């Protein structure tokens, strides 16, 4: 896999380079699979990976462009520093998680060009596989006095937690004997208590200025079926407890997450330090680093909001080509390389911001301009009749498949008496600086002849239904006479008798406002009513309408066959993006 840009510089790379120089992880062990201290001590070998990172999605929705940032970052760091990146499903929330999402995530991480196999080892993991270990650690924490079962209601717990300016107050259950907490924990685990009736809390510091350190809940009761562990567990670990353990078991060195977890880092370190003391985990320990989420203007990326778009029918599923999901971008015709390019170009920041949406489109153009096959299409057709062209006469015209790459070769399509051209390429009364067809004007039919426009035919409603022109023999492109007549306009066309009819979907931004959900607004109200326009167009003959290929339709933009809607003989083509950024500008 290659990216045209040099490796970006950022604070994470500096950190890793310093850690490698200081041999911070030099003595690290690996036991062929995620392992706690006991197994590492028994079976551990020097870790073949110089660093380990992970991409830890929760399988509660489809991946979106923001996740692509995290994927490119974590897999990219591992690739560049002799490390390994794990794919880990953070499946600790039974109610919202599903196998469907797991499958889609596997598919799209691969599509994006990354692989969690290294040296023949499959590094795809599930947090739920660590439930036994996590529970064992919880009992050890209770026995050591680092955790207790609290029987306050959630409301009372909240009331005692304090605020940003006031310290919290100890729960009356905080000082109960460890043996009593342990007995309760075991009853919780055995399913003897209803949801919400009690919870296991870490005993840290109710007076900490950091609210996250005020005895956070680490296990809650949830009588819920899990997509992998079924009904084995009536209790589930909280993210803030589970995540550091997942990282440590997998030997992660650099645990990269987004900024909202910054205040959780002290608890992350607290959990790991206690479990080292208790002999459950061994050093060197993972360290958490935070960076700013990648946000783009004109989209939303919260999975909850994306789900709402799907459930309320504002879009046609998770893979609707207007969705900022990777499934949607793929169906639209975005290439994996263009998304990687966007992620590389936008760097790693410590402060939140929204990127210009045009950066995504520009990344696609930059990826595809040198490689995309060129084709001709007409999206808003009107007939052009070459009145002095003999009926039935055909001449094959040659055009490069890609003008930047002579080796790609040529394509051929016939020029005939009746053509389709874009309606906008003819004006009865041309505005200033209009160089295309109008009565009396000379224009080149690209790859063909120069023609002189002679007029048009209209219907009763006054609409132009045919444009007429005469061709100038001896002016054919590629022949010595081609330069004998100078023209200022060059228009694309397809033969009416040969072109292939297609439904063409002209997509625009899903939202008409740059910050659709800014300030807690109702983002549904910001939906762009014109985000999809469907036209019937004509495409140059001989194009294989294979989904997965993105073409440049000359003068029009980048287009791809829709894998879901196309069927044999009835192609549906998506416009990925226009050739230039004209959004919000007139014309
Ligand atoms: P959402 O708010 O959409 O549910 P999430 O962060 O809860 O997002 P996860 O499945 O937990 O979704 O995310 C997996 C990984 O992707 C996490 O490490 C998370 O930090 C990262 N990630 C999610 N969104 C972005 C984003 N916009 N930019 C960069 N990284 C992101
Ligand atoms: Mg999350």
Top keywords for this entry?
587 residues; alpha/beta; Rossmann fold; Glutamyl-tRNA Synthetase, domain 3; Glutamyl-tRNA Synthetase, domain 2; 4 domains; seven-stranded mixed beta sheet; 24% helix; binds adenosine-5'-triphosphate; binds magnesium ion
3D architecture notes:
It is a single chain. The protein is α/β, with parallel strands linked by helices and 587 residues long. It has four domains: 12-131 and 237-291, Rossmann fold; 144-234, Glutamyl-tRNA Synthetase, Domain 3 (Glutamyl-tRNA Synthetase, domain 3), CATH 3.90.800; 303-372 and 502-577, Glutamyl-trna Synthetase, Domain 2 (Glutamyl-tRNA Synthetase, domain 2), CATH 1.10.1160.10; 377-492, Ribosomal Protein L25, Chain P, CATH 2.40.240. 24% of the residues lie in helices and 23% in strands. The chain contains 13 helices and 31 strands. It has a seven-stranded mixed β-sheet with strand order 16-29-30-31-27-28-17. Helix 8 packs across helix 9 (265-277). It is elongated. It starts with 10 loop residues before the first helix and ends in a 10-residue tail after the last strand. The relative contact order is 0.10. The mean pLDDT is 95. Bound molecules: adenosine-5'-triphosphate and magnesium ion. Adenosine-5'-triphosphate binds next to helix 3 and strand 12.
Offer a concise description of the structure.
This protein has 587 residues and is an alpha/beta fold. The protein has a 7-stranded mixed sheet with strand order 16-29-30-31-27-28-17. A 7-stranded mixed sheet has the order 25-22-23-24-18-21-26, with no helix packed on it.
